Amino acid sequence: MSQIHYEIRPYAPGDETGILASFNRVFREVCGPGYVDRTLEYWRWEYLRNPAGHRIWVGLVDGVVAGNYSGTPQRFATTLGPRVFVHAVDSFVVPEHRAGLKRPGLFVSLAEPFFDDVAARADAVVYGYPVKQAERIGSKYLGYRRVRTIEYLTRASGEGSVEVPAGLRVEKVTRLGDEVDALWARGAGDRRCALVRDRAYLQWRWLDVPGSARDYEVWLVRRGAELAGLMVLRPRHELVPGGCCIADWCVPAADEDAARALIARATATARELGRSTVMAVFPPASPEHARLVRDGFALQSSAQWHERILMHRTFDPALEESWLIGNWWYTIGDSDLV
User: How high is the pLDDT of residue 100?
Assistant: First the structure.
């Protein structure tokens, strides 16, 4: 049997057509009849319009995409200075070119130059929430290490009542202004390691994404004319059955009233839409996690439904594993899970 020759190289303009054809083929098989093909519009939004750029490697056989290893860079603010993290997403190999665990195959052959490129660019961390097969391959061949299994903070939407505190006003928006940058700057000092939630990122991530009007709601809370906080909802999302998901959050940690106003809005939205559960994800040591527990949210491991494991590989000695575990602040919206 002759050996297959793979052309492995970085993304070149026009590759997206072949990447997407193979991607949709793979995920139709994985996800079953309910899978809806990803569109070129969505792919170009995710990678080509990302304000932080992209990291994409492809493997081709006779010009046909057999595999892809890709990531979306994210600008992070840390107490050690600005960094770039890369969220590894959408990687795949078509069935006839998979090697499994018995030997390094095309998946690893794509990942190795991807990681070499990350290191050459001085990106700090690659992370993701891999499926079981990718987790096993990543742990065995690619230096992936576990941060934690994700736990969901959940509360029944019909349980008790949450009111918007006096003097605050909550509004839904479809565009963001420069005031969001000032909001991020006021709260950034609360986080030792967090994705930069400025206007450019939030507008791209939540309001410019194809289908955003259907899938996401962006809510602002104001104290007079001043912007006090921002929340993104995915009102219908099944990470937890019947869930109304708090996908993103930008509220200074000390502003309890602004946080309460947004939680009140999330609860009201869930009730209005007949959703049974309000859910969120914050790291265990964060003030937001503690606040939601005080407000009656309970912890449920994602393993109860479909286990989500945060894995990472660090390329920056200053951001070693124990430091990341203790200081990395995130929401579920930092990932592609929502």
Answer: 58
Tokens standing for residue 62: 């006779």
Q: Assign residue 258 the CATH number of its domain.
A: 3.40.630.30
Q: Which pLDDT score is estimated for 96?
A: 92
Cα angle: 21, vertex 51, 329; to 5 degrees? 100
In a domain, 63, yes or no: yes
Query: Does residue 176 share a domain with residue 118?
Result: no
- Confidence at residue 103, expressed as pLDDT on a 0 to 100 scale: 66
Report if residue 1 sits inside a domain: no
192 and 170 part of one domain = yes
Overall domain count for the chain: 2
Measure the CA–CA gap between 186 and 197, rounded to whole angstroms.
11
Model pLDDT, residue 31:
86
Q: In angstroms, what CA-CA distances link 258 with 57, 79, 147, 155, 230?
A: 43, 25, 30, 19, 9
Same domain as 232, residue 87? no
Positions of the chain with pLDDT lower than 70, given as ranges: 1-2, 100-103
50 and 137 fall within a common domain = yes
Structure tokens, 194: 């967090």
In a domain, 322, yes or no: yes
Domain that holds residue 118: 7-149+310-334
Check whether residue 298 and residue 314 sit in a common domain: no
d(CA 149, CA 309): 4
CB environment 247-277: b (16+ within 10 A), e (fewer): bbbbbbbebebbbbbbbbbbbbbbeeeebeb
Q: Decide if 110 is inside a domain.
A: yes
